[in-house]
């Protein structure tokens, strides 16, 4: 199994190289050269098996011989052993053929843990084998940063720098990044938006001298390792509801398009996915794109679902590549137009193909509040604002009542206590093991969205840079 860039660079990388690289050197994203397929019998065989075992079966065709299966299995068992629910990603039924897939039982209470706990251990394993160090710079609108800090803190092979938009994330999200005391984790409050943070990370990857000096890596969903680990829960949820013998639909709260793209990966592998519903808040670039074919960035608006306050959705490039017939020149032209003018038009055939599997809608702030209130009242179910965006959109969707709809619940409501309380009057509390989070001292640096200044900070935090300089 090897990986190629969506922008056409000739290099072909194995899984480990693609995972350590993060972004391709031509600015593209790695995708598998071909799609592995799982037979219906293999998928049916996932029923009743522990999450970690299913993870190994789904991920191993993408890893090939780059990591020994025995190591992959050991690492998966360790990673998912850190979850507080025995099922790891349990399903909760809310209505007739309406289910919530709870992805927030990991250490930082968000779906990012499902991939990050695995990817951190895989990276650590291969870096130790090679005797190498790396520096990870991660852009976060709140959750990826905390998950990365938690998964990598204290690891000798890796330094992590998290860039978050100053004042635009919840207190709990910020504290998860800023309170750990380990020397290898650092947080920068960037004076800008998440899109600025993500653009800075990509610019650092495209600055090759800097990239090589700090041995830069990334664990945003530009990293293929993240995507493939997120594909696993589509399988566990679908099989629990009767796949592969019936089709299953998913509604996914969406920002960077990583999570819903993982559903697309599952469908490419043979899972009978009926529909992937892209749910956005008022930062609705993806909903607009699927409706009109015009991908057009606008000013980002702060909402009660801050992790989805995103305009440039990185992983949409992977879907474009696939639906443009894997034509890297076309993708290059479209991405060039985005960089130049902040917009591009999705080619007609590509849009048609996208619409065969994807639909999309948005929920505004009033709808999100009403959704949180209604589920609390009707079912005593407390949804976080991101989950509420998806629940609201799932309700608007024209559904075949015979097809189960699974709504991905991507964060624990206690990460957004103020927003939830304002919507329904109930303030969700942190679990016991995190109850001292509000009392811990914080450590972060405020910097402008200036590439040179951020690079300077990252270089000074990077032990890989110091190793390379012979210090
Ligand atoms: C809680 C939560 N929900 C939804 C999303 C959107 O996921 P994606 O960026 O993969 O589309 C994010 C951020 O990634 C998030 O943190
Ligand atoms: N919503 C994310 C933004 C980054 O997304 P990623 O999946 O590409 O890491 C966050 O909460 O940080």
Automatic annotation (TrEMBL):
- Domain Threonine synthase N-terminal residues, every copy: 2-80
EC code(s) of this entry? 4.2.3.1
What's the domain of life for this entry? Bacteria
Q: Where is the Tryptophan synthase beta chain-like PALP domain?
A: 93-329
Q: What Pfam families does UniProt report for this protein, alphabetically?
A: PALP, THR4_C, Thr_synth_N
The PTM N6-(pyridoxal phosphate)lysine maps to 112
According to UniProt, the name of this protein is Threonine synthase
Q: Which organism is it from?
A: Undibacter mobilis
């Amino acid at each position: 199994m090897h990986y190629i860039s969506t922008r056409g660079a000739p290099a072909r990388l194995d899984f480990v190289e693609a995972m350590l690289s993060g972004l391709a050197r031509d600015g593209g994203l790695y995708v598998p050269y071909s799609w592995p397929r799982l037979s219906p019998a293999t998928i049916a065989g996932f029923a009743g098996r522990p999450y970690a075992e299913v993870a190994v079966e789904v991920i191993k065709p993408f890893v090939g011989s780059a990591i020994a299966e025995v190591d992959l299995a050991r690492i998966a068992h360790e990673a998912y052993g850190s979850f507080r629910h025995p099922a790891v990603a349990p399903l909760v039924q809310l209505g007739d053929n309406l289910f919530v897939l709870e992805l927030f039982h990991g250490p930082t209470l968000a779906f990012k843990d499902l991939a990050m706990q695995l990817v951190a251990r895989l990276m650590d394993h291969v870096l130790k084998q090679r005797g190498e160090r790396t520096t990870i710079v991660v852009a976060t609108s709140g959750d990826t940063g905390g998950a990365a800090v938690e998964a990598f803190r204290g690891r000798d092979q890796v330094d992590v720098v998290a860039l978050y938009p100053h004042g635009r994330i919840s207190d709990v999200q910020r504290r998860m990044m800023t309170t750990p005391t380990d020397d290898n984790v650092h947080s920068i409050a960037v004076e800008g938006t998440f899109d600025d943070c993500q653009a800075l990370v990509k610019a650092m990857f495209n600055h090759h001298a800097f990239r090589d000096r700090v041995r830069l890596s990334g664990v945003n969903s530009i990293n293929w390792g993240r995507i493939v680990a997120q594909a696993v829960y589509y399988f566990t949820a679908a099989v629990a509801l009767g796949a592969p013998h019936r089709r299953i639909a998913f509604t996914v709260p969406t920002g960077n398009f990583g999570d819903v793209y993982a559903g697309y990966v599952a469908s490419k592998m043979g899972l009978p996915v009926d529909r992937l519903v892209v749910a956005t808040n008022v930062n609705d670039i993806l909903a607009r794109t699927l409706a009109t074919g015009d991908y057009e960035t606008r000013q980002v608006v702060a909402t009660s679902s801050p992790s989805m306050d995103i305009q440039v959705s990185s992983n949409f490039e992977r879907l474009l590549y696939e639906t443009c017939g894997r034509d890297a020149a076309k993708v290059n032209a479209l991405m060039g137009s985005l960089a130049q003018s902040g917009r591009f038009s999705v080619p007609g055939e590509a849009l048609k193909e996208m619409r065969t599997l994807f639909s999309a809608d948005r929920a505004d702030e009033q709808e999100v509040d009403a959704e949180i209130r209604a589920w609390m009242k009707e079912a005593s179910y407390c949804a976080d604002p991101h989950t509420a965006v998806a629940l609201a959109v799932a309700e608007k969707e024209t559904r075949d009542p015979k097809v189960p709809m699974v709504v991905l619940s991507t964060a624990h409501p206690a990460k957004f206590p103020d927003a939830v309380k304002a919507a329904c009057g109930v303030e969700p509390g942190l679990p016991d093991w995190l109850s001292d989070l509000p009392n811990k001292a914080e450590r972060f640096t405020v910097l402008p969205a200036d590439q040179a200044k951020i690079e300077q900070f990252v270089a000074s935090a990077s032990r890989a840079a110091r190793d390379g300089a012979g210090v």
